[in-house]
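In this section we walk through a basic example: taking a raw amino acid sequence and producing a predicted 3D structure, encoded as discrete structure tokens. The instruction is simple. Fold the sequence below.
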Amino acid sequence: MVRTEICSRRVLLAGMSAGLGAGLAIPVLAAGTGAAQAADESETVARDIVARQLEALRVAIVDGDAKALDALTHPQLSYGHSSGRKIETKAQFIASLAGKTKYKSLAYSEQWIQVVGDTATVRHVWDGADILPNGETGRSYIAVMQVWLKESGTTKDGIWRLLARQSCPLKPA
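The resulting token sequence is shown next.
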């Protein structure tokens, strides 16, 4: 389930400026304005697109799909692991997964997405059944924060790509 903010700052500010002139800040905030509603709908669409990109990234990680990982990540990717001591570049991140099956399963839960302009912050819990080098299965259960950037002014205009990711260990619930 994706948890999102009920109302964006842009909607609140648009409603307040429209309502203050008429002395009706509260009713206008509740009803919204045409421009504010359009902005809110645009952010809702952006959150949905980012959620789809996040799912595509999860599938690409499980499949070890280098082409998909390349398309989903920004050239300046900073990918931090839960130890806090390992940070990978885009090339290192893709090389660590390309053509390898490292997960029996990987699920995301407690997903939260906030979009501010061309940047999205994503938080979720990662629950993975890892395939260890010796063939045994381990478990990765971590809290993850990601930053996604909507590209503009390039041939990839309008595409959301992962710019940064950091995780920390969690104790299983």
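Looking at the output, two observations stand out. Strands lie at 2-3, 73-80, 87-88, 103-116, 119-131, 137-150, 160-169. Residues 1-31 have pLDDT under 50 and may be disordered. In the next section we compare this with other chains.
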